Amino acid sequence: MDFQALLDGIDTDLRPELGREGQVASYIPALARVPVAQFGIALRTCAGEEAAAGDSAVPFSIQSVSKLFTLTLAIRLLGDALWERIHREPSGNPFNSLLQLESEQGVPRNPFINAGAIAVADRLLSTLGARAKDGLLEMLSGLAGEPIGFDAEVAASEGATGFRNIALANFMKSFGKLDNDAAAVLDLYFHQCALRMSCRQLARAAGYLCRDGAHPQGQAEPVLSERQTRRVNALMLTCGTYDAAGEFAYRIGLPCKSGVGGGIVAVVPDRLTLCVWSPAVDASGNSLLGTRALELFASRSGLSIF
Ligand code: GLU
Fold first, then answer.
1. What is this structure's pTM?
2. What is the set of domains in the chain, with CATH numbers?
């Protein structure tokens, strides 16, 4: 398949739509300033072939796409013990909802909603302590094959205005479901959301997900086992795109993880990983043009897990 032609075609077809619909996430002030008229797409095959189009080298705030990598790090460190305090069911609720936490005694529905990612951050902090942020950067830089960093302005902006997340962490703490100080857990969570990466870097870094866990830069030690990788992909398909996961499975048919910064990572198991980015998001928090691009990719390439 000529992947470069495929991505060029998607870029050409979607570019006229830039800025027409949707809005950048404005509840995080630093994200509200991102110029809306941007679109990037990049992929990397299991064999290492790369293709990219549009603003694929522009770094953006990966936001909830980071939940994929903190989950991966936590599974590496803790194995199945991670699941003692996190369920694996779609929530069917907005990503920052407090509703289910009350009836389910502070145990989040899945690791990809905010409450679940805060619970994962708590476990990372218990395991790595003060090295948690550096540990995350090291893993990501190793996966991407180049240095990855935090956007300090976005992290500070989230810290100053993330009242929902502050409420979620304190609520879980009240149920005895966080081991660490809520403020320390939130500091890690806000930093992971503020990771800056481009579509190209994300398509590379997520490469283990299409290669049964093998390291995308060829390191001997796998990132995850084959079984763990299958399970992360299953969670992406069922829970990775907020309360639109059913619609994503229906329209695209690939495991995906999105973020309110407008990025979406998708996996075609045994074939490739793909990342799309466009900052305007829909009411669920998924990139509007990113979703359209993935739909075009799946229909034009015929690639889907179904
Ligand atoms: N930092 C965002 C928040 O916690 C992440 C949300 C997202 O990308 O889903 O609200």
1. 0.97
2. 3-301 (3.40.710.10)
